[in-house]
Amino acid sequence: MPLHSSIVFRVLFLALSCLSAQTEAQLKVGFYSESCESAERIVNEEVTKGFMKDKGVAPGLVRMHFHDCFVRGCDGSILIDSTSTNTAEKDSFVNNPSLRGFEIIDNAKTRLETECKGVVSCADILAFAARDSVVITRGPVYDVPAGRRDGRVSLASEVLRDIPAPSMNVDQLTQSFANRNLTQEEMVTLSGAHTIGQSHCTSIINRLYNFNGTNGADPTLDSKYAGQLQQQCPQGSKDSSLVVPMNPGSPLVTDVGYYQDILANRSLFTSDQTLLTNSNTASEVNQNAMSQSLWMRKFAAAMVKMGQIDVLIGMSGEIRTNCRVIN
Ligand code: HEM
Ligand SMILES: *[C@@H]1O[C@H](CO)[C@@H](O)[C@H](O)[C@H]1NC(C)=O
Ligand SMILES: *[C@@H]1O[C@H](CO)[C@@H](O)[C@H](O)[C@H]1NC(C)=O
Ligand SMILES: *[C@@H]1O[C@H](CO)[C@@H](O)[C@H](O)[C@H]1NC(C)=O
């Protein structure tokens, strides 16, 4: 090849690789359409089957995808089991015992390994399963760009650092999401996931008794509701399995009930109620509470963006054979 054309080729190649480095979305909708045509259908069948048996798998899988993406990116690291030499993310107290739905991912993976061995990543299975969980609870329908690969590291110690705490105020939450390149508005939008599912009493007990050195409950919590929560979560109870619904009006429906709860001073966490203390976030809470269609559109877009955090693509990472174990 003449020198001249090889230089042209290289310059072109460099320009193209710069371009692709700039575009955020290296993932692709329909990524498995040729390599494993039934991938999304199989995940959907397993989510549906699991949901019939236990409605809790839907909120569980939405939260699991969030916890996967915020720690080391959406690389399926949340799915890895601890070993004798490593305590994995799922065994941080933040996730154990509250995180649920792992068996749905296992069931889908088992079928996919039979159908298309070594093709579909655990990280993608989780992203599809979270979407299917949103849809099965009547939330927005959206396409999931795929092509994530699985990580090989999962450390419990990173969970507390990277997953926002329910005691956080709006500035801390904004920072936590900014660390993942998500805006404050996306933070408010994604928090709307707290319209489904449940919380363990242990996650709200600090707001119910001796709040901040006072004798009673958090004064920003509606006092009648605080009384009900105190009955469901008795002080000093040793029962760590006690739970309360997130949005008691419709705990299984992905709607704007979460924002209506906040406006009624009936949200469970400081991290929810604090959204009224900042004029921008408060205005978004008000808008979302009033417009289901607006919030659904924003939520779908924000889930897609969250699903792209620090993904492994191309030849990085691996396609795990068993989602609980690195290859
Ligand atoms: C904004 C910061 C957030 C904080 C501080 C937070 C905190 C929490 C806490 C403490 C629980 C209760 C866990 C338990 O005790 O069982 C919970 C549950 C849940 N979270 Fe969040 N979360 C946040 C954002 C998100 C996001 C972005 C999503 C998803 C997009 C999400 C989805 C869920 C779901 C669906 C549940 C219910 C889980 C179940 O029923 O098993 N959360 N969250
Ligand atoms: C956030 O964006 C910056 C600049 O574009 C990039 O360097 C960084 O890797 C991104 N972080 C995440 C978690 O996506
Ligand atoms: C806790 O109490 C202190 C002093 O009484 C007060 O300055 C602070 O704002 C309170 N914090 C919350 C979260 O209410
Ligand atoms: C919510 O609490 C605030 C004070 O924290 C109060 O001004 C407001 O009226 C309460 N809203 C409702 C609906 O109870």
Structure overview:
It holds the Pfam family peroxidase. Keywords: Calcium, Disulfide bond, Glycoprotein, Heme, Hydrogen peroxide, Iron, Metal-binding, Oxidoreductase, Peroxidase, Secreted, Signal. The protein is an all-alpha fold. It folds into two domains: 124 residues, Peroxidase, domain 1; 137 residues, Peroxidase, domain 2. The protein has 14 helices and two strands. The chain has a two-stranded antiparallel sheet. Helix 2 runs antiparallel to helix 4, helix 3 packs across helix 5 and helix 11 crosses helix 13. About 4% of the residues have low confidence. Bound molecules: protoporphyrin IX containing FE and 2-acetamido-2-deoxy-beta-D-glucopyranose (3 copies).
Would you tell me which CATH topology of the largest domain applies? Peroxidase, domain 2
**Strand content range:** under 5%
Class by SSE composition: mainly alpha
Integer average pLDDT: 94
Molecular shape: globular
Can you tell me the number of structural domains?
2
